[in-house]
Design a protein that fits this description.
By secondary structure, the chain is α/β, with parallel strands linked by helices. It contains eleven helices and eight strands. The chain has one domain: Aldolase class I (TIM Barrel, Alpha-Beta Barrel), CATH 3.20.20. It binds 1,3-dihydroxyacetonephosphate.
């Protein structure tokens, strides 16, 4: 993991009401170890409650998406300023579920990343290949395009990358540590030398307490973006402990 501070984030996806969020986040915040950075990416409706319950702790609260415009006629959307106003620390952008089900493009992500950075929100940018792309030998091409077209290098100071091979998300099929490390090293190499040394790259895709230690031991894996296992405090904290 080098000298970079480990960063473990839970992506709740569309789980937990505001009522469920308060006690869950309060429990998590009270049990966090010193050392790694830890965040939860929660649904919009749970953000205020999560910020309230995490107050005074190290736990950071992230949204799972945002719109790139400052304001305007975009029914159903949420701006960076609205997130900051709630006390939100950052935003997860480009998750494969948003790319796949909601048509999110690298061009839109470039705008979102620029808007988040300008507003002062930290960003976790998710990248990753489909199973078909991996089998066709296109993994590196896909990752390189996602990094370049989203303008990631221009916003590196606020940025964490999450490498999430789509075939490993929610399937129980984790990438082997060697395969994940290879992708992480490739992603790191996409950035200029001064950024490449400091930018953190999380692994995501069926990371669980039992496979986390081996993944996190890889030199270019700086943390995790955890889906299913982040919905249960003991499992999430076990992964955080593995990063400590
Ligand atoms: P799982 O950990 O449930 O595979 O989800 C990974 C993910 O998509 C996190 O963003």
């Amino acid at each position: 993991m080098s000298g970079r501070r480990p960063f473990v984030a839970g992506n709740w996806k569309m789980h937990k009401t505001a009522g469920e969020t308060g006690p869950f986040v309060a429990d998590l915040a009270a049990r966090l170890p010193d050392g790694p950075e830890v965040a939860v990416c929660v649904p919009f409706t749970s953000l205020a409650e999560a910020v309230r319950a995490a107050a005074g702790s190290q736990l950071r609260v992230y949204a799972q998406n945002m719109h790139q415009a400052a304001q305007g006629a975009f029914t159903g959307e949420i701006s960076a300023a609205m997130l900051l106003d709630l006390g939100v620390h950052g935003v997860l952008l480009g998750h494969s579920e948003r790319r796949q089900y909601f048509g999110e493009t690298d061009a839109a992500l470039a705008e979102k990343l620029a808007a988040a950075d300008a507003a002062g929100l930290d960003v976790i940018l998710a990248v990753g290949e489909t199973e078909q792309q991996r089998e066709a030998g296109e993994t590196e091409q896909v990752l390189a395009r996602q990094i370049a077209d989203s303008g990631a290098a221009s916003h590196a100071a606020r940025l964490t990358i999450a490498y999430e091979p789509i075939w490993a998300i929610g399937t129980g099929r984790t990438a082997t540590p060697a395969l994940a490390e290879e992708a992480h090293r490739f992603i790191r190499g996409r950035f200029p030398a001064e950024i490449s040394e400091v930018i953190r790259i999380q692994y995501g895709g069926s990371m669980k307490p039992d496979n986390a230690p081996e993944l996190l031991a890889q030199p270019d894996i700086d943390g995790g973006l955890i889906g299913g296992a982040s919905l249960e405090a003991d499992a999430f904290l076990a992964i955080v402990a593995a990063a400590t």
